Amino acid sequence: MSTPDNATLRDLAAAYALGALSREEARAFEAFLATSPETQREVDEFRETAALLALGSEAELPSPELRGRVQAAIAATKEQGLAVRTPAAPRALALARRAAWPPLAWVGLAAALLAAVGLGVRTRTLGREIATRDSAIAELERRVDELGQGVFDRDAILAAVLDRDVKLVQLTASGNPDPAIQVFWNRARNTALLNATGLKPAPPGRTYQLWWIRDGKPVPSVTFDIDAAGAGLVKGVSVPTDGELSAAAVTEEPAGGSQQPTSPILLVGALPKS
Amino acid sequence: MGAFSYAPAGSRLDACDMHSAGSLSPAADRELVARAATGDERAMSDLYDRYGTVLYAVAYRVVGQRADAEEVVVEAFTQAWRDASRFEAARGSVAAWLTMIARSRALDLVRARGRRDKLAARAALSGLDAGPAPSAGENPADRAEDDERRRMVRQAIEALSPPQRQAIELAFFEGLSQSEIAARLNEPLGTVKTRVRLGMQKLRESLRPYFFERVT
How far apart are CA B99 and CA A46, in angstroms? Predict the structure, then answer.
């Protein structure tokens, strides 16, 4: 399977914002997105665009009661941490009270009407409860899907690391075993997976950048961020195919990355010769 | 008018509470979300006042029925309440965040019920599931400003070629992937991808002045 290039991936920004990518496309795009602030900005703009689409359709406004239902649902969630319950319509109770005063002859009819109204209200309430439960089930399904996605991602990483064509390159700081970066270089596919540990998050406005050393000169590669735990992972890093690669190195650069290193090398490791 | 033109309950969407780029207050929105994250329920009421009708509009368009759309709005605001602490201001506006939650919940509801034929939606859009009449209590100036904004959004959508509009609407309102759209329309996948990309680029250029929040 070929790896899409960055231009191809950038073209997916609009579809990503619309939620129109397949799972595989979305995964590849998100890995690329983590390395491209410019594309992230595009995605943000397309999200704002998509959010306006709702205003292009004819629709009525919600009922005046909806605000109260939202407030009640949030209060219920706050107090109980449970799913939302829709309050029953008070109209049935009012009708029940009114039914008490008619003459005897009307009692039967009133009772029948009351039963009909009550049945209608009950049906509506049940309908709302079913809708609420449907939504809760859908939410659970979404979370299961997310968990499944996480497992799938880990499997994909494991497969990428264990591929027979992969060579491990260890990038270290001089005289310091921690931090460290592992570069899993798939020489058959010309891609790499970067796994960083023990790095401090870059200062505000700064980022880490990977460099390939080709024919003795640095070739800019991806930028990446480090989380609070000191870890970072970048998948699908492109590896130059022309020239002789001798090493990989990491520097700290201004946000967005540089075309040439602007600071000393922090970590470096030699690449195995082919 | 202020940052928002809240449409009184019972009025039509023409008086939608979307704000203009010139008067928006994204900082106030973010403050509301931050307050919600600390457990302030009133912040959610304020967010409903600002965006309830927008969320209802997207929910209604997806599910096609008033009762379902309202249920989606309840679910969306409840989820926003639960997830408020995870809102990332750097990733876009509060309005876009809420809208996307509502869209997801609406699509979940449709999927859960296997109601993807859109018949209900079409019936509703034809007026068979009509709502209340316009309110008499609106401020005419607010109404005119909102009408203008809404008109611009419609105009931008209508300026798309019909295939572009169709592809984007299938993606956004029916939750179809580009591959699924291609299969549904019996068109090559590449053609669908191009329509989505070019259509969204065109919309973005037209609607940038009307974004809920400027992207920097």
Answer: 13
